[in-house]
Specification:
The chain is α/β, with parallel strands linked by helices and 260 residues long. The protein has eleven helices and eight strands. InterPro entries: Methyltransf_11, SAM-dependent_MTases_sf.
């Protein structure tokens, strides 16, 4: 077993969701198009483990799901129609070998304290496919926020593990597919606002993207002022206005799928 330190609310990653997760579900609502991609990656599984399950985004309601989530504040935000989440971490899963047909994790692997241990545990308890929805750090510069809030993007680049590292740790047959982000995406991660820059002026929207919590508060305020000025002056639209009518954006979002 791995001895892991936790924040006050139980979060085991580098972000304290007791602080930043209080309104997470207000802004991070699962997008149905992304949900379809995640569900397809699980194949014909009947039992599924969701690691770092949070408030339950992308959990398939037609399957038997076991959810694991170390943050008390995130467990409390799970809606009543989903099963309660177990208080546990990826690095020490309380299940026998080969318990589940499939496993999934969405926007979570960058929070794990020991990625290699976590992925080994996920593979240990899973008979079939493991599906990971994450961001490829090598593709983050595709998003205009790199110009207006560079420390936010650099924070994400440091935190998100390289796709090659995920593939190597999981082993088996691995595929990596880009996940298009729709203009009206309901899951408010940073790139979801590629054509709606005004949304990132909302403090709640930024709080739901944990990378902002790692940026010095004064610098983060400067970034917001810079973005607001660019929008108000028309600068943003002169440079990126075409994105307001672009149906989908292919940024850093990817689906990594491993078959044993």
């Amino acid at each position: 077993m791995t001895d892991l330190s936790r924040t006050q609310d139980g979060s085991a990653g580098d972000a304290d969701y007791g602080v930043i997760g209080s309104t997470y579900s207000d802004f991070r609502r699962p997008d149905p198009r992304i949900a379809t991609i995640v569900r397809a990656a699980l194949g014909d599984a009947r039992t599924v483990l969701n690691i770092g399950a949070g408030a339950g985004s992308y959990e398939p309601v037609d399957l038997e799901v076991t959810a694991v989530e170390p943050s008390a504040s995130m467990r409390a935000q799970r809606p009543p129609h989903l099963v309660p989440a177990i208080d546990a971490v990826a690095e020490s899963l309380p299940f026998p070998d080969a318990t589940f047909d499939a496993a999934m994790t969405t926007f979570s692997v960058h929070q794990w304290s020991d990625l290699s241990a976590g992925l080994a545990e996920v593979r240990r308890v899973t008979r079939g496919p493991v599906a990971i929805l994450t961001c490829d750090p090598d593709l983050l510069d595709r998003f205009w926020l790199a110009e207006y809030a560079p420390d936010v993007i650099e924070t994400e680049r440091r935190r998100y593990p390289a796709v090659a590292r995920l593939a190597s740790a999981l082993g088996g047959t691995v595929t990596v597919d880009p996940v298009p982000i729709s203009l009206d995406c309901t899951d408010g991660f940073n790139e979801a606002y590629y054509g709606r820059p005004e949304a990132l002026l909302d403090a709640g929207a930024r709080a739901a993207c944990s990378a902002w919590s790692f940026v010095d508060p004064e610098r983060a305020r400067d970034y917001v002022v810079r973005l607001r000025k660019a929008i108000d002056s028309g600068e943003w639209d002169r440079r990126y206005g075409a994105l307001r009518n672009q149906a989908a954006f292919e940024g850093s979002l990817v689906l990594v799928r491993s078959l044993p």
